[in-house]
Amino acid sequence: MTTDPAPTPALGIDVLSIFPEYFTGPLDASLLGKARARGHLRVDVHDLRGWSVDRHRTVDAEPYGGGAGMVMRPEPFVHAVEDLYGTLADRPRTVLLTPRGRRLDQALVAELAREPELLVLCGRYEGIDERVHQLLAHDEVSLGDYVLAGGEVAACVLIEAVSRLVPGVVGNVDSVAAESFAGGLLEHPHYTRPPTFRGLTVPAVLRSGDHGAVAAWRRAQSQARTRAVRPDLVDEDAGDDGSQELPPR
Ligand code: 6GU
């Protein structure tokens, strides 16, 4: 018996960070670790300090105009990109993680998953020199309206969300299609054994064997849950393509 040759990864991601060790756990564990081992996905994290401006491995400096904190200098980012890709123009789609960016959602995740390669830039300290934004960032992405110490955690979130959509990474394509947000609604409740636990019983319809009734119950649960918890996701005009399947009010 022969083993299948490793496929060419459908997606290759390069990451620039001053804390490359941040990524070892998330990238090596579970789904992403398996996908990388099987060759569906390539992720290489590069230490930005390899392109520091001096032998003290400095990558930041005081802000022009004064103010608290340090600002990341532009040279390490730009020199790293030139070493990795030859010229700035030859870099792949480049995402800068920054709290001033567009909030990440499943639509952007799906868009990024269609790229053959991505470059992910992580900022730290109080900010990044504006020229990095101007010269390198195709997309500026934030996780939401709260403050993290840097872009590393956000980059892990982005990489995991994007990787799940890469063919071969998630074994069961149905589970990707059915889950929250893919259809614009939150997921319905899930149950497994035992049938009763601590006085809480699995809804009878799920054990009825009536697949039509199960589907209708799940759809109604998704709709009720979305209206209650995330009314912002309920777009009353979205019924035309059937993606939300909301009943009239
Ligand atoms: Cl991408 N970076 C930082 N520092 N804070 C954030 C963020 C990113 N997204 C939400 N908060």
Structural overview:
Helix 4 (about 105-115) crosses helix 6 (about 150-165). This protein has about 250 residues and is α/β, with parallel strands linked by helices. The termini are far apart. The protein contains eight helices and ten strands. It has two domains: about 10-165, SPOUT methyltransferase, trefoil knot domain (Alpha/beta knot), CATH 3.40.1280.10; about 180-235, Orthogonal Bundle (Trp Operon Repressor, Chain A), CATH 1.10.1270.20. The longest helix has 19 residues, at about 210-230. It is elongated and about 70 Å long. 6-chloroguanine binds next to strand 5.
Question: SSE order in H/E notation?
Answer: EHHEEEHEHEEHEHHEEH
Spatial gap, N to C terminus: 59 Å
Number of domains: 2
Largest sheet features: 5 strands, parallel
Radius of gyration, in Å, reads: 22 Å
Q: What is the typical, i.e. mean, pLDDT? A: 91
